[in-house]
Amino acid sequence: MSTVEPVAAGSRLPGSVTVGSATVGSATVGAGPLHLAALDLDKTLIFSARSLLLPIPVAPAEGSSAAVSSAEDSLASAAGAAGAAVVVREVERYNGAPQSYATARELELLAELDRVAVVVPVTTRTLAQYRRVDLGIRPRYAIAANGGHLLVDGEPDPAWAATVAADLTGCAPPATMLGLAERFAAGWARTVRAADDLFVYVVAHDRLDIPDLAALTVQVEAGGWSVSQQGRKVYLVPTALTKQRAVDEVRRRTGTRVQLAAGDSVLDIPMLLAADAAVRPAHGELHELAWTAPHVTITADAGGRAGEQLLSALLAQVRADGRWDGGAVVPA
User: Fold this and answer.
1) For a designed S-S bond to 142, which of 21, 151, 281, 302 qualifies (C-beta 3.0 to 4.6 A apart)?
2) Structure pTM?
3) What CATH architecture is 2-17+29-46+102-166+244-330?
4) Boundaries of every domain in the chain
5) What pLDDT, in 10s, does the model give residues 105-126?
6) In this structure, is the dihedral angle defined by the CA atoms of residues 105, 286, 38 and 326, taken in order, positive or negative?
7) Cβ distance 145 to 125 under 8 Å?
């Protein structure tokens, strides 16, 4: 385990691989892009007003003649905990109100990473929830519903949907788990829903209201599902439905040889473990569990600053490895 500090050019993440010899692990590098960066969204790249841990600037009401210029001035003057100016950008709006944020610096780093690697947003959000997010890039591939949807140029891939349906035949149907969740949530939950008919989640009014999950876990695991708590949410997910399964498919299609990853939750663990080098933020479910692995780096800060730091670390990895052009490894 190590902690991400400001990353110097040419530095490498712990557990990273050497590609100057045209070999990555036991695999020989062929033609095509070298790096794939699988990036979780919520609390990794994008943040609620609470989880951002930075001031949220208030823009003038829509229709104001000074709305645009005043909003920009307000954004530019927001100050971080360390005293340096931090520009905060809205990246999601829901029912007409801002929902999620990222720092402008993080979005710049993401765009830079997108130019030198195959960036794949990977989220447990439903398809509709994912489509509300604007990261300022247009990734060729994205993964939603914890691997249930593989998007190609923004549209679900039907071949992948058929693969997922076949994988899930050995698990209990979502309707069964929805019934379990509804009984479990009676009296304390705000919302119980089936997400895209693939998994189930429960939202509590307060995380302290969530009862012990042991009995529910036994019932859920008997049906080939798993349980995970993330803040006020409890997820019931088929064990066959994982983010990494979809990431493997993107790697197959793109020919990428090195997997980088970032995430903050238990549902990200398979993706982080499968990566050649990975970063997790110093907040979230995995931080609360003190989870790590030899090749996983932890950011120095929490909140929006962590988003910047993890992307800086991944970019440093790409630059250190170089880029495969089909004949030689060249600087990225």
Assistant:
1) 151
2) 0.85
3) 3-Layer(aba) Sandwich (3.40)
4) 2-17+29-46+102-166+244-330, 172-238
5) 999 999 999 999 999 999 999 9
6) positive
7) yes
